[in-house]
Design goal:
Elements: H1 3-11, H2 18-27, E1 29-32, H3 38-55, H4 67-71, E2 73-76, H5 83-89, H6 92-102, E3 107-117, E4 124-127, E5 140-146, E6 157-160, H7 176-188, E7 193-195, E8 203-207, E9 212-214, E10 223-232, H8 243-252, E11 269-271
Antiparallel strand pairs: 1-8, 2-3, 3-10, 3-11, 4-9, 5-8, 5-10, 6-7, 6-9
Helix pairs in contact: 1-3
Protein name: Phytanoyl-CoA dioxygenase family protein
Keywords: Dioxygenase, Oxidoreductase
GO molecular function: 2-oxoglutarate-dependent dioxygenase activity; iron ion binding
Length: 277
């Protein structure tokens, strides 16, 4: 597959239905089949994987890591280091889905993030992403994009359906404590757990406040996943009131004033992008 053909496949509209949008807003997440083709995933997946290996800074053996570091190899903002990965992150197909699900006219990218759960890698504890994000409203969504078919043994992403409306636990960093406390709250308040494999080409989208986790990777194959976090075009930077949010502000919004629209150099408009729609 040529780069040109792959790129075109990234920008054609996905036929999102009213029912899928309604389920996303009700459950806080939605899983969509056949969002990306096998050829697109093979073409960009190899390049993303090469960049993860090049940029990864975690080299301790698994048994010497803490719970967070056992969960995955994490590489952020690859789009700033590789033009082909940038092309993937600028996908109008993915950006349009994000905007439609949120019900907004346009979205910016907050950042990209590769999450590679190694063979024998541990759990990803219960958490909500927006704990880390100094954003003025809840119009944020993560696209979780497996670069291969993801079996149950590989540790697919799992969601507590409807938990984006639940506020207890939002102050917990991803940790052993969050796994125990949030997991117990989800059971106590009867939020259904949706923990299922991902077919090749299947992509999930979840709100920033949706509680989610992943099991360990008990397979012999790395669970290679690329994520893209989208925010409403017009969302504002709030005062970062935790160390985690201060770190995010420094990484992704150092050129944005508190109270101003998140329109800095690290949060570009993804959809609609002139010339790509």
């Amino acid at each position: 597959m040529s780069t040109t053909t792959a790129a075109l496949d990234l920008h054609s509209p996905y036929p999102l239905t009213a029912d899928q949008i309604a389920r996303f807003r009700r459950d806080g997440f939605v899983k969509l089949k056949d969002v990306l083709s096998a050829d697109v995933l093979a073409h960009y997946g190899k390049i993303i994987t090469d960049e993860v290996h090049r940029l990864n800074t975690m080299h301790l053996p698994l048994e010497q890591r803490d719970t967070y570091s056992k969960a995955f190899l994490q590489v952020i903002n690859i789009w700033t280091k590789n033009d082909t990965v940038k092309e993937f992150c600028w996908s109008q197909r993915l950006g349009r889905i994000a905007a439609q699900l949120l019900g907004v006219d346009g979205v910016r990218m907050y950042h990209d993030q590769a999450l590679y759960k190694e063979p024998n890698g541990g759990i990803t504890p219960w958490h909500a992403d927006q704990y880390y994000w100094p954003l003025s409203n809840a119009n944020s969504v993560t696209a979780w994009i497996p670069l291969q078919k993801t079996t149950q043994e590989m540790g697919p992403l799992a969601f507590a359906a409807g938990s984006h409306q639940f506020e207890m636990g939002r102050d917990l960093v991803i940790s052993d404590e969050s796994e125990q406390r949030i997991g117990r709250s989800m059971k106590d308040h009867n939020y259904p757990l949706v923990d299922e494999p991902f077919d090749l080409g299947e992509v999930s989208f979840h709100y920033g406040w949706t509680f989610h986790r992943a099991g360990p990777n008990t397979s012999t194959q790395p669970r290679a996943v690329m994520t893209i976090i989208y925010i409403e075009d017009g969302i504002r930077l709030i005062e970062p009131n935790t160390k985690a949010r201060q770190g995010d502000r420094a990484a992704f919004a150092s050129d944005v004033e508190v109270g101003a629209v998140m329109n800095g150099k690290m949060t570009p408009v993804i959809y609609p992008t002139p010339g790509l729609v």
